[in-house]
Amino acid sequence: MKLRKLFPKLLLVLVAFCVLLFLLSPIIAVVGGSFNDGGYFAFPPKSVSLRQYRAALTNKEHLESLAASLKVATYSTVVASLLCVPACVALAKTSNPIVNKVKTLFMAPIFLPGIVWAVGLLQCMGFLRIQGSLAILICVHTVIVTPYMIRIVGASMDNFNYTLEDAAASLGAPPLTTFFRITLPNIMSGIVVGMVFSFMISFSDVVITLFVSSSSFTTFPVRVYAAMRTEGLDPMVLAYSAIIIVVVLSISILGEKFAHWSKHFSTML
User: How far is CA 88 from CA 7, 66, 109, 158, 199, in A?
Assistant: First the structure.
């Protein structure tokens, strides 16, 4: 009887474990394959070595493209934050029924496939006779990440206790002082989560960047994609991927431990 009662729970645990293993299998394969000593992908590695990591840290082309991706992701995230935080505050304090329609309009880049945006942006650039450059790519990525900033920061504003602002105003605090000393600190965790999420979206984008970037300025995901089409899977790329995975997981664990980031990411659903 006890075994019969425990069977559904054991089955549920087994299914959950299988799903988790399925989700983690690409990460396990990438990290494990990055330690292979050969010049090809093999998992499990036939011989363990740090050869791919040494090659990754000395490859000039890949390091330049990695720096380009970091630059574009950083600039676009900062610009999106400077635009979206005031916009979210204004939308949250506006009681006009049109606000919900405006929020839906901000979500448009999420709803449309990336290839649609890429073709549309390429046509606009051709019509305006604009060539791909760092500034153009930053503007495009700002458009890409803006919906995520709006969604996450907007959710923080929805949960904000506005009586704090009323109390500050009743004590004679000017609006700017109230914003920087009351509102901004209370929604800062949402802003940070939105910036992290936006940075990852910008850094990993391939489709739109492939259409609007120029040959003189190549981001890391685009370079990896181009190399895989011509040379196949380079194990050195696995080393870069493993480093990125470790960094992202470390930031996520620390963010969840100290700021409970998961409650902000749930607003994306």
Answer: 49, 32, 17, 9, 19
| 62 assigned to some structural domain | no
- Structural domain containing residue 95: 78-215
Q: What's the start-to-end Cα distance of the chain, in Å?
A: 40
User: Has residue 61 been placed in a domain?
Assistant: no
Q: Is 129 helix (H, G, I), strand (E, B) or coil?
A: coil
Q: What is the DSSP letter of 130?
A: -
Residue 21 within any structural domain of the chain: no
Residue 234 near residue 51, CB atoms below 8 Å: no
Number of domains in the chain: 1
Domain of residue 121, CATH code: 1.10.3720.10
Average pLDDT over residues 34-51: 73
Q: What is the pLDDT of residue 235?
A: 74
Q: Is 46 exposed, middle or buried (0-12, 13-18, 19+ CB in 10 A)?
A: exposed
Instruction: Identify whether the C-beta of residue 152 lies closer than 8 Å to the C-beta of residue 190.
Output: yes
Beta bridge partners of 48: 36
Is residue 197 assigned to a domain?
yes
1-10, 24-33, 108-117, 157-166: least confident range: 1-10
